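Complex record, two chains
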Amino acid sequence: MSHRTGLEVSHAAAEAVKLAHVEVVAAYPITPNTHVPERIAEMVANGELDAEFIPVESEHSAMSACVGSSATGARTFTATSGQGLELMHEVMTVASSMRLPIVLSLANRALSSPLSVWGDHSDVMAIRDCGWIQVFAENGQQTFDLLLWAFRVGEDPRVSFPVIVNFDGFHVTHVIEPVFIADQEEVDRYLPPFKPNAVLDPRRPVTMGAYGPPFIYSETKKAQDFALHKSKEVMLQGFAEFEKIFGRKYNFVETYKAEGAKTLLLVIGSFAETAMDLVDKLREKGEAVGLVRLRLWRPFPEEELRQAVRGAETLIVLDRAMSFGTLAPVVSEVRAALYPEEKRPQIVSFVGGLGGRDIRLEEFEYMVKRGSELTQKGGQKELYETIGIR
Amino acid sequence: MEKFSIYAPRLVNPEENIAPGHRACIGCGEVLAVRYVLKAMGPNVIAANATGCMEIISSCLPTTSWKIPWIHVLFENASAVISGVEAARKALTRKGKVPPGRVYCLAMGGDGATSDIGLQSLSGALERGHDFTYVCFDNEAYMNTGVQRSSSTPYGASTTTAPPGKVSIGQWSQKKNMAAIAAAHNIPYVATACSSYPFDLMAKVKKAAEVKGPAYVHVLSVCPTGWRHATDTTIQMGRLAVESGVFPLYEVENGKYKLTFDFPKLRPVKPYLKLQGRFRHLKDEEIDKIQKQVDKEWLKLKSLVAMGGGEKKVVPVPAAIESKGKGVKGPGSKIKRKNPTTPRLRRTGPKKVSRRGKK
């Protein structure tokens, strides 16, 4: 049976990596993800984890080494944050296009400049089109759970895609929380050994990473997108099996007290937990307010989102990143997903929590109030409203 | 090993691990070097290739020229990719998931991928001590993208991003010494080689592969397209580069320098330069400057060899192809062509083709 223990969430992530019998880890230090590779390096040095730890000279090389390792058939993990992810960017698209199921834990961090080591979602939003499966964890338990799920789903031969598990820098990474750490036997039951479709092996030579001229490139991209959409079925199976073994339930879009809600908040990442507190408070007062938490970010769960918000009058979307010159990333996806709906809620967009700034209960309360107010007035006229700005 | 050159031809691996039918230019010295490298390595190898000529000519989807496991990822990361391959093999071997025994790890890249954009990833992999061989195929510019300068382009050469003009000589900087940079990592084996000396190249690659830990082989890869010389003079061009001291062949074994070929007297650089369109614009005074630089580097190398107490093989310059030094006509015009009926491509000659002649 799992045991419940208090530990730093970064260390819980490292525990998941250890229980998954990861074979190669290549990582480069960057705040706030550093504690994950540090703890793994310690485990390798102690002999707790039988793996190769490659202390590379940059994030670009971290992801490159991961590509080499995964292509050779080893279960492969890396971790990074902010600028590190940006430096990996070039290699990320190759990893997904070559269908290499690397798992990356991303301690979300703001992007320079000005330099900020603190959390927001600018890093992952800047690479949202890189072809990886992307999920958001809100706390330590979810980080631990989703990492195990990521290996199982990503490595499934029907999927064969790399996975990013997002967890907020500092707000989650550096927090000590009680986490149920699974037993080895349970994890082994959940996670079969990695058996890739093709590997670099002299016994059966293959060519990987060929170049595609115009007569074939489009077909490769179409096939890749088709496979990513199709992988949703396996993801759901992964969640169902997880629930069976560990008892915790996950879904692409999760709701909290959303039944009959007139106003819905939509939040990704750890701020959803603050929003839950607000929903509790307002529900006690008798207000019909609920919460939608987007767990899966890529492939985007359009249909699941439509179902989750059906019947609401106002949908308040909080983004922790900007898309300069247009709508913030999450709200633009949400608007696109709801456009075909005959009756859709008024969508109100807020941007906040940038570069580690907190969003408190009162601010969520303001968002709800302001959201209903704007709905009464016929909708939001500006692209977005900024929360907690001086 | 003294009689190696006599026996080697019979000992050469007959297997071809890069298949014919690839798209390399006529007279390509680089793909020839790749062929020799693969012969030396044998089938028990995994290769990571940087973006560049060799990747483009060999891997047009859905075809491949490679008969060995081969991966191409990006331009600047072949060393990091092979680090991952090597680490994975180590872990999988330890866990019994692959059969025991050594599989050679080979990373390859051109001079741009090695000395410019990929220098950091190469340095990292050398420093971390991965068990792999890096082979740089140096054709002295970004040939795949159309002859742009790299840090490995020699002084005075004309390239599309360092063209000679009224106020420029072309390449204004000296060629980066990659072998010395590799050697500065205190790795067990560094060597320079050239496909004009196939047995020496293969022997060095074999040595590099056998060494435990990182090894670096820098191969001069003659490029008729970028250097602008006749396509049937590739081998000769490599030999001239070596015999004139422009590209000396040597090894650095555990820090000790050893000359592969020593010459009682180096050829002058002029005939080598004069055969190539990329040096056509150089005046005699500039050629003198290059000569002085080559002499200086040669002496420096000799002093490094002397310090290491390394042996040297003195090879007299073959009289038959010795330059008579007659004006602009280099030794190329003195060499009897094996098959005089083959039409000679004239686009590279030192005369004619005067773009500047237009008025």
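Note: Confidence is low (pLDDT under 50) at residues 319-337, 339-359 of chain B.
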